[in-house]
Design brief:
The structure holds two protein chains of two kinds.
Chain A (H helix, E strand, L loop, with lengths): L13 E4 L3 H13 L3 E4 L10 H9 L57 H5 L9 H15 L2 E2 L15 E2 L5 H13 L4 E2 L34 H9 L3 E3 L4 E6 L6 E8 L2 E6 L2 E4 L2 H11 L23 E3 L1 E5 L14 E3 L10 E3 L2 E3 L14 E5 L7 H7 L4 H11 L3 E9 L7 E9 L5 E6 L4 H21 L2 E6 L37 E3 L14 H18 L1
Parallel strand pairs in A: 1-2, 1-10, 2-6, 3-4, 10-21
Antiparallel strand pairs in A: 5-13, 7-8, 8-9, 11-17, 12-17, 12-20, 13-16, 14-15, 16-17, 18-19
Helix pairs in contact in A: 1-6, 1-11, 4-11, 5-10
Chain B lengths: L4 H10 L39 H14 L7 H13 L4 H25 L8 H11 L12 H18 L2 H7 L21
The chains are: A alpha/beta, B mainly alpha.
Chain lengths: 550, 195
Amino acid sequence: MSGVDRAPSQTAEVCVIGSGPAGALIASVLAGTGYDVVVLEAGPRFDFDSRPKRMERAIRPSHSNDSVWGMGGERDAFSASGEQYYPLNAARAKGVGGSTLRWQGMVMRLHEADFERRTRDGIGADWPLSYGDLRPYYARAEQELGVAGAADNPFAPPREEPTPLPAFPPSYSDAIFAEACERLGVTTHSVPNARNSERYDGRSACVGYGTCQPVCPSGAKYDASTHAEKAEREGARVIDRAPVKRLATDRSGTRVERAIYATPDGEHTQRARQFVVACGGIETPRLLLLSESEQHPNGLANSSGLVGRYFMDHLFAGMGGTLDRETRQNHIGFMTSETHQFYDEPGEGTSGAGGEVPAWKGNSRAEDLGPIKLEFLNYAGPSPVGSALGGEQWGDELLSSLQSEYGEHIAMGGLVGQLPRAENRIALDRNRTDDQGNPVPDIQWSIDGRTKRTLKRANEIQRAILEELGVEISWSVGPEETGPAYHHMGTTRMGTDPGESVVDTRLRTHDISNLTLASSSVFPTSGAMNPTLTIAALALKAAAHLDRDL
Amino acid sequence: MELTRRDALVAAVGTGVGVGGGGVALSITRSEPEEEASGSASAAGAGRKKGVDRELLATFVAVARAIYPSTLTGIEEFVRTYVAEQLGTDGEKTESRRTATRETASELDELAASWHDTSVVDLDPGTVATLLREIGVDIAEPDPSGTIAQRLRFHVVNELHYALYTSPTGGRLVGIENPIGHPGGTASYQQGPST
């Protein structure tokens, strides 16, 4: 026996599967309302005091990136049979708090246009919700996560109230960028961060460890263990190391009756009135597919055949080099300035007193572009400790190298969103099983022409800004080199037509009346903003519906 | 530039060793040791500290003198304090790490005796640097269960470099007041270069 009680709750009204931001928020809200809630989390409960050691693991080259939060091995096995390899474990974590344990912590609202992509551009899919529908939940999500932001972004969608914390001031290198951007007519602004600029909600203000991704030792960066602990204080049970193997329905096949989960002490069955699957864009569809039965031969909630389909991610575009002066990088591990000027109008040019960002050459429907979010990095170039640990020198020779290597790097990043395409999907690989004997997820992924075109446009803008600065450009990441931002979206899409979607606007599955899916898996179209604030807003909306139903 | 005991303590805080009075405004609650670490085997926190033996500390100091920049002073106290905090605490993981480090250091000493007829702690820094290169530590991938070169790189050389270059003094040597791994606050990133 492990010494921890992982037996099912006998009186649970709500069973939440997954303790990332969606699951933890729903559990916290419903437990706070007085419901009997049990959370089943596949990974362990990490000791907060272990974080500095995890940081050391992240910095020292002898440890793999996956090992910081114990990822890898049979438990986390996966396949990637698509045209493009997908490194699934590179940026996810299993444990109380989910992948927010290692996320960057950027929290933007989607733009109004993101909800109307089909109507506006004739491509992708409209959301069955508008920005206005989600707006009050965005505001609440910002309070819950403790967002540090400012009202200086002229491209952001409308809002009524300020974020709960002031934005982090711009960095020295932001100021360098701002001057060049102004000369080109490009507007820069602050970044909303789920990171405490002041003490908030019992958590420390940021103390500048600089290792936000993959671990924040001070706890200043929000992670969902905050709400898992709140849920527990309200009476919920959070059972760790309890991967759910499948969901079973009642005889009618229209209600989930049981979640069958494994623990170190053996298999258990949890019953509840309402079930919430909040396992992200990969494990959510996988669990539904693993829950196939006679009544649901293609998997649970899959009468549309769309469970696992329309997998989307954001793609990274970047460019950088060196300047002839100090840029003061690597003091912190997060960004403080961006420009969303090219989000709704990615093809438009700009001009200022010093020059221009040229407009995109192609302007026909066939040459359309997606939204672009551009970032000014505060951690360009190598960090001294990283170079020291990986180098082949020491003593004065090493110091001399570090001094010449550090100080003048500068770079931009950016995100581009994929459109939903049915062939990009999460399926089961029935030839390979995990530590529970279940088929592993198979990520079938490719990058479409529009996304590649938009990456090229992002590079074009980045180059214009860096050249205006006088940067000696030494690297770029564009359509050929790009990789995912690990924002898994779209695999149980939301819609009003049960034949064309998996969940409705309440995040309830069309097929199963007591099954809610709270995850970025419900996004019909991705936009290009980091998804977690939208995940949190949707979770709060789902919690309100669940409260009414219960 | 002088390394201070504070450098060692804040570097140790960064790696999660329970140190109070590191001078950093962390709001994480950490247990205070009963007395501050002195770098000796009987250092801080009676009942919590196993201590690090004198020979191992001396080996770390000898290697640090060989691989740290020559402009640094205060190396001995810095290293003794840091290593005592890193390897001197109680617990299964630390015990295992301490044992592995001690075994690696003993092998280094054996090689010093074999190739230079004396203990590594009695060699001058230049000879220690040569010895490490002869073993291949400079080009070895750090690996706690690899060859002697890889283990020395992991347990000793990279431990010392991690301590130095995540400390304020080590950062300032390179030109960054708040190096990665050091909780130096959120002011320095906003500031331009000093004139």
